[in-house]
């Protein structure tokens, strides 16, 4: 039975949206952030605001994000229509995907933030919060998993990237485009993302702590010397290869040797598009690397692949389970 009046729960973390500016005192609370949003009270959506983890996006941990998802999940189980999370934009593309992987509800889990501080001219936080609450409460957005709403665009956590360091239009989904838009206050969903069985959210915290996954971005003339001994310190590796998933020929045997000890996932460093599976044959090509045991990351960018691999390792998945999960979600 529902115990809560229908509405939206807003969980406020840190980030630019909460930074009052130099010499202006402490970080803004969730109540202060929402009080500054024109039109929010008139929406007619009951809003319950809670403060959690007031840290910059760059300091968030997997464990904290899973705690936020658990809070959000409880709110939905108690009757909330949807949840909004405000946070720093630096890690939004990763936290959103982590939440999406474990989010079991139809109710929207919406993440937002701001590129400009509240005291700056053209601050984008208020408009982003307003749009995020509209999406969280919208019937149209149900069943779409975790969504990222900024600049009146609705992005799937699965595809969204932060593509600019300062521009308020920083968030884009280069491989797919936005799922929807907020137009004249209406949530217009144009696409529905594919949904998969959620992964378990109740991850053992010690296991999560030790499920370290490294990311190696391949660069010109890269011999991969810094990967030496990685199997002793990490449980998995994501390789951000050139273009369609290529590495220098000299690096291929090193990656193959690592793949004998831990899961190594191949992605592209380009920022959009997928890695290939069987188009090129040269040493260091995608075909060669797959033969050497690397797992195909598909369309997942390096950062999202790292999130998925760490979560899988933390939930005890073996190599086959990991390969299957990447085949399904990559
Ligand atoms: N450095 C900030 C953060 O992620 C940037 C932002 O919020 O836009 O906390």
UniProtKB/TrEMBL annotation:
Protein name as it appears in the record: L-asparaginase
Presence of keyword Transport: no
Annotated ranges, domain Asparaginase/glutaminase C-terminal: 212-326
One Pfam family this sequence matches: Asparaginase
Record's keyword terms, sorted: Hydrolase
Gene Ontology terms: biological process: asparagine metabolic process
Domain L-asparaginase N-terminal span(s) in chain numbering: 8-192
Residues annotated as the enzyme's active site: 16
Entry's Gene Ontology molecular function annotations: asparaginase activity
InterPro entries found in the cross-reference section: AsnASE_II, Asp/glu_Ase-like_sf, Asparaginase/glutaminase-like, Asparaginase_C, L-asparaginase_C, L-asparaginase_N, L-asparaginase_N_sf
Family: Belongs to the asparaginase 1 family.
């Amino acid at each position: 039975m529902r115990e809560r009046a229908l509405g939206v729960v807003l969980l406020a973390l840190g980030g630019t949206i909460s930074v009052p500016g130099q010499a202006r005192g402490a970080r803004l609370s969730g109540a202060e952030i929402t009080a500054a949003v024109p039109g929010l009270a008139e929406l007619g959506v009951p809003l319950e605001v809670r403060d959690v983890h007031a840290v910059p996006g760059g300091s968030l941990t997997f464990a904290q994000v899973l705690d936020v998802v658990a809070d959000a999940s409880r709110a939905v189980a108690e009757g909330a229509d949807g949840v909004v999370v405000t946070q720093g934009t630096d890690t939004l593309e990763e936290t959103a995907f982590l939440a999406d992987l474990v989010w079991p509800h139809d109710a929207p889990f919406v993440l937002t933030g701001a590129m400009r501080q509240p005291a700056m001219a053209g601050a984008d936080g208020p408009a982003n919060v307003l749009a995020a609450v509209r999406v969280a409460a919208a019937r149209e957005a149900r069943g779409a998993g975790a969504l990222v709403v900024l600049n009146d665009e609705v992005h799937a956590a699965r595809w969204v990237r932060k593509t600019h360091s300062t521009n308020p239009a920083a968030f884009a989904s280069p491989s797919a485009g936005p799922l929807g838009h907020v137009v004249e206050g209406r949530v217009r969903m144009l696409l529905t993302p594919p949904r998969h069985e959620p992964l378990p959210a109740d991850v053992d915290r010690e296991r999560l702590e030790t499920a370290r996954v490294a990311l190696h971005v391949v660069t010109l003339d890269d011999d991969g010397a810094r990967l030496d001994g990685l199997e002793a310190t990490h449980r998995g590796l994501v390789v951000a290869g050139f273009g369609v998933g290529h590495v220098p020929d000299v690096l291929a045997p090193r990656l193959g040797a690592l793949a004998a000890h831990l899961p190594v996932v191949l992605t592209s460093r380009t920022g959009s598009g997928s890695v290939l599976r069987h188009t090129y044959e040269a040493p260091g090509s995608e075909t060669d690397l797959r033969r050497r045991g690397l797992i195909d990351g598909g369309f997942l960018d390096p950062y999202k692949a790292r999130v998925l691999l760490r979560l899988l390792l933390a939930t005890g998945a073996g190599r086959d389970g990991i390969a299957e999960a990447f085949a399904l979600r990559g």
